[in-house]
């Protein structure tokens, strides 16, 4: 069934009268993939209100474009070229990159579809036909007007060579008669900090100094009003234009109020309607809301003839270089070359490829793999679904984004990991304000301590993957400083002796910066958490855990979920220590003397909450200001045992106290309680208002192996029964508590089914899948993972361009698209669990967990990726078309002659063998059979 038929079928099912909706039906688009690289197209995208697409470069300029080219462009929080927008501004067509054509004898046409006239034509037969085509970092929209007999093609991208956004507009006469057009680009210039969208909105327009120059409009405000106070401004915001053959514009409309005219608007501007002349180059205006209004010379287009214009949007502290920038794009061919460069660059940057039985899935995975790059560029703040913050990423994001880099761009990851450890404090907590540069952490000047109790978990997960992918265990011995600010004792007290002169690096008594090994940093993160327990002897929730919205139980809340995660890490760390000892001969490691307290290994202390607190206090007080700097040697083998004891105790304690046995007839259900609230009450179980179950506790009890195998099966049953909703996109984060539980977090204030309150939150669903795959629950993991993809790809409900959104709301719509930690985890799970391709201390291992339908018609699946600086095609052949539980790896060879070693964990190619391979592409063929 084709897409159109599917759509009709869908409308029929929903009992929609198809004839009545003929126009809409014709006008509604579908995502169509055009190749294996993820390039897609879609008709009439402007008929969906919340679509946006990222275009950015690596030099700082980042934009979002909606189908009508709305959306903003900025460098950072304090430098927005276009007005900062959220999704609700996207459909008002105000702040758009407009491009008008005044058509002699006919009227004025917006080539981007943002006009009052076009709004009235929507959903009628007269509506412009439009189609978007897009790939990584490029966006092309075409629009055909019936009334004006003109077609526009607008390409948007950020070139590699300059920190600007390019908008290249081609106008073609598709009519039978000659057409005389006057083109006018009209882009409102905000030119200031996002903070001024409301605060000082008018006063900050008074700061504007606007000039018209030969190519366009330049706005250089005198001051910047932002959170840093009033600063002398150094930036120039500019919108310039040139024709495709190099002609400069003829005049300019630099002031919004003059352009729209009294009573006019940006979708019905009087200057274009009345053909008012613009200002010449070389003029200046002060204190007005500015507009990049650029009028080009009249053009007469014969039938079939076309003409093009290039609009350049930018922010610079070197306005003298704008002419040079314009000269780089003053011919159509130059723009085309720059555009092609962008396409190639990003395609290559995302250097993983997928081939399964499902081309849509393969394309989807390309977008998912691209998303971590977007998150590095946009943080969590700079696309129209503004998640939080002022542009930065949080601690968690920092570490998670490394996961995908380890697969796609591992070159700099070692240094990145080392630098990031510099954010850990000696008390095991970490800096939460992350600077612009790698390894830069900023002291919290507000003195508001907030400790997210999950923060200690992520660095080890990333470091472990790093060690497995590279075999570089030496990194554990590398030294890094500790972060130091006014916070001490895990944010419960202030170090009054500290001041900015001390600096943000932990010092010893003699005033030198103390450096400890990465292993020591890891130990501190885990050991300090181990002792920081609440009334039920699980680690305290503090400010929140992964779920940022569990932020109202800081006194008594406990996170059983992340206690599991810490226990899992302690075990994995112990395993790693064993390897260090046995395979690499490490006997002892050096640790800060004070840490010895934390290494006491007495079960009696583990049981005794007060004793734990006293012990932690002893340690924290010993290093509240400076550390001694003295070190001790600790046996690697006894350290491993020590960590195992702690982990085992935590896990046993959770198994004993937190298991909720299902009340179903067949006793097939059951799950773990994930949290305690501020009233010290367990959060999950059977309540009068219904069953309360949360996904997070299940994910980490499964992943950490706290849940025994039979418990995993019961958890799956319960999750399927209480959390799974196919129409919403998969497993929800929690059931409906029917209570505004302000003794746990703000999430309960959100409508049920939204964001952290019971949405299908991609990140946690992916981690659920990952945990299930790790434990061998392949079918279950596959369902969790594939429903997310199916839902995202089902445009009917998700209403997003390809990729994984942060979450799906109750109706299945995808929100907070692109910028989500889920992308890194999805990609990682797909590669390391589904395809089963992962590093093991530098060796490449393959242990596929693909289910039958993931192979193509011939029973093949293919993954291309880089590993240890070599390119691989990993071909999985399943000639008998068996399902996961029926196949085994029969044989595996690299380049038809190197036989891979086989054991119960699949096949592997040794580190040495990989080193011996040359720079060409190597094919590993893994053959499966019964
Ligand atoms: C967002 C935050 C992430 C947090 C999560 C749950 O998720 O960025 O740090 O853990 O909400 O509150 P994301 O957008 O990464 O999926």
Structure at a glance:
The chain has 930 residues and is an alpha+beta fold. It contains 24 helices and 52 strands. 29% of the residues lie in helices and 25% in strands.
Describe this structure in words.
Among the domains are: about 45-130 and about 180-295 and about 310-335, Beta-galactosidase, Chain A, domain 5, CATH 2.70.98.40; about 360-365 and about 385-390 and about 660-820, Glycosyltransferase, CATH 1.50.10; about 835-930, Maltose phosphorylase, domain 3, CATH 2.60.420.10. By secondary structure, it is α+β, with helices and mostly antiparallel strands. The two termini are about 35 Å apart. An 11-stranded antiparallel sheet has the order 1-2-9-10-11-12-23-18-15-14-20. Strands 7, 8, 13, 19, 21 and 22 form a 6-stranded antiparallel sheet that branches. The protein is about 30% helix and about 25% strand. The protein has 24 helices and 52 strands. A hairpin with a 2-residue loop joins strand 50 (about 900-905) and strand 51 (about 905-910). It is globular, with a radius of gyration of 30 Å. 1-O-phosphono-alpha-D-glucopyranose binds near residues 547, 549, 763 and 816.
């Amino acid at each position: 069934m084709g897409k159109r038929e599917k759509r009709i079928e869908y409308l029929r099912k929903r009992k929609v009268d198809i004839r009545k909706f003929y126009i809409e039906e014709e006008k509604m688009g579908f995502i169509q993939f055009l190749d294996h690289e993820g390039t897609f197209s879609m008709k009439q995208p402007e008929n969906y209100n919340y679509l946006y697409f990222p275009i950015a470069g690596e030099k700082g300029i980042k934009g979002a474009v909606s189908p009508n080219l709305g959306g903003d462009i900025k460098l950072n929080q304090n430098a927005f070229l276009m007005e900062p927008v959220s999704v609700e501004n996207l459909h008002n067509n105000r702040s758009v990159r407009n491009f008008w054509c005044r058509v002699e004898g006919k009227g004025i046409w917006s080539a981007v579809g943002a006009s009052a006239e076009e709004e009235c034509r929507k959903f009628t037969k007269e509506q412009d036909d439009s189609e978007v085509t897009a790939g990584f970092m490029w966006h092309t929209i075409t629009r055909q007007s019936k009334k004006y007999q003109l077609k526009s093609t607008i390409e948007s991208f950020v070139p590699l060579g300059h920190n600007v956004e390019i908008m290249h507009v081609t106008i073609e006469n598709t009519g039978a008669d000659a057409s005389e057009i006057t083109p006018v680009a009209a882009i409102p210039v905000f030119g200031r900090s996002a903070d001024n969208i409301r605060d000082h909105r008018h006063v900050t327009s008074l700061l504007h100094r606007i000039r018209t120059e030969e190519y366009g409009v330049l706005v250089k405000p005198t001051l910047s009003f932002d959170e840093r106070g009033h600063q002398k401004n150094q930036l120039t915001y500019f919108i310039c234009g040139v024709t495709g053959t190099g002609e400069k514009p003829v005049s300019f409309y630099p002031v919004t109020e003059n352009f729209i005219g009294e009573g006019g608007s940006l979708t019905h501007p009087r200057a274009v309607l009345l053909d008012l002349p613009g200002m010449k180059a070389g003029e200046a205006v002060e204190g007005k809301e500015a507009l990049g209004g650029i009028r080009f010379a009249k053009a007469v287009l014969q039938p079939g003839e076309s003409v093009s214009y290039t609009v350049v949007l930018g922010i610079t502290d070197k306005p003298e270089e704008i002419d040079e920038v314009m000269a780089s794009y003053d011919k159509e061919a130059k723009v085309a070359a720059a555009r092609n460069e962008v396409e190639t660059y990003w395609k290559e940057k995302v250097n993983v490829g997928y081939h399964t039985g499902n081309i849509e899935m393969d394309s989807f995975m390309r977008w998912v793999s691209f998303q971590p790059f977007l998150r590095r560029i946009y943080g969590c703040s700079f696309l129209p679904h503004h998640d939080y913050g002022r542009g930065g990423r949080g601690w968690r994001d920092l570490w998670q984004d490394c996961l995908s880099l380890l697969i796609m761009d591992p070159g700099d990851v070692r240094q990145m990991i080392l630098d990031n450890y510099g954010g850990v404090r000696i008390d095991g907590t970490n800096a939460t304000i992350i600077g612009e540069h790698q390894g830069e952490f900023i002291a919290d000047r507000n003195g508001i301590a907030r400790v997210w109790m999950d923060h200690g978990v992520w660095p080890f997960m990333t470091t472990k993957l790093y060690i497995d992918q590279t075999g570089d265990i030496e990194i554990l011995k590398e030294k890094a400083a500790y972060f130091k600010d006014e916070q001490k004792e895990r944010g419960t007290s202030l170090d009054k002796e500290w001041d900015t002169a001390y600096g943000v690096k932990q010092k010893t008594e003699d005033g030198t910066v103390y450096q400890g090994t990465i292993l020591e940093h890891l130990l501190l993160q885990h050991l300090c958490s181990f002792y920081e327990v609440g009334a039920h002897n699980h680690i305290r929730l503090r400010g929140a855990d992964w779920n940022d919205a569990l932020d109202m139980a800081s006194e008594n809340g406990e996170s059983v979920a992340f206690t599991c995660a810490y226990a899992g890490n302690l075990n994995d760390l112990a395993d790693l220590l064993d390897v260090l000892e046995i395979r690499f001969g490490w006997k002892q490691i050096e640790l800060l003397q004070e840490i010895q307290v934390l290494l006491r290994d007495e079960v009696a202390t583990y049981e005794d909450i007060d004793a734990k607190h006293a012990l932690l206090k002893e340690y924290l007080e010993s290093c509240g200001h400076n550390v001694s700097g003295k070190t001790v040697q600790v046996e690697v083998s006894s350290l491993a045992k020590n960590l195992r004891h702690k982990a085992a105790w935590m896990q046993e304690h959770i198994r004993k106290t937190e298991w909720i046995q299902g009340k179903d007839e067949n006793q097939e259900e059951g799950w773990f309680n994930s949290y305690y609230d501020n009233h010290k009450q367990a959060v999950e179980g059977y309540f009068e208002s219904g069953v309360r179950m949360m996904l997070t506790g299940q994910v980490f009890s499964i992943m950490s192996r706290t849940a025994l195998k039979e418990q995993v099966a019961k958890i799956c049953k319960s999750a399927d029964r209480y959390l799974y909703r196919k129409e919403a996109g998969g497993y929800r984060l929690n059931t409906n508590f029917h209570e505004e539980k302000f003794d746990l977090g703000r999430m309960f204030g959100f409508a049920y089914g939204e964001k952290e309150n019971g949405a299908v939150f991609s990140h946690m669903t992916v981690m659920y899948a990952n945990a299930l795959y790790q434990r061998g629950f392949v079918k279950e993991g596959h369902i969790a993972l594939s429903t997310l993809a199916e839902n995202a790809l089902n445009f009917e409900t998700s209403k997003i361009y390809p990729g994984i959104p942060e979450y799906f709301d109750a109706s299945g719509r995808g929100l907070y698209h692109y910028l989500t930690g889920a992308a890194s985890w999805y990609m990682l799970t797909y590669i390391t669990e589904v395809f089963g391709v992962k590093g093991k201390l530098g060796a490449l291992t393959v242990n596929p967990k693909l289910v039958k339908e993931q192979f193509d018609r011939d029973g093949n699946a293919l993954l291309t990726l880089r590993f240890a600086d070599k390119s691989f095609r990993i071909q999985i052949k399943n000639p008998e078309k068996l399902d996961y539980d029926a196949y085994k790896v029969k044989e595996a060879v690299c380049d038809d002659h190197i036989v891979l070693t086989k054991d119960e964990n699949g096949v592997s190619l040794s580190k040495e063998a990989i080193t011996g391979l040359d720079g060409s592409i190597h094919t590993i063929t893994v053959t499966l059979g019964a």
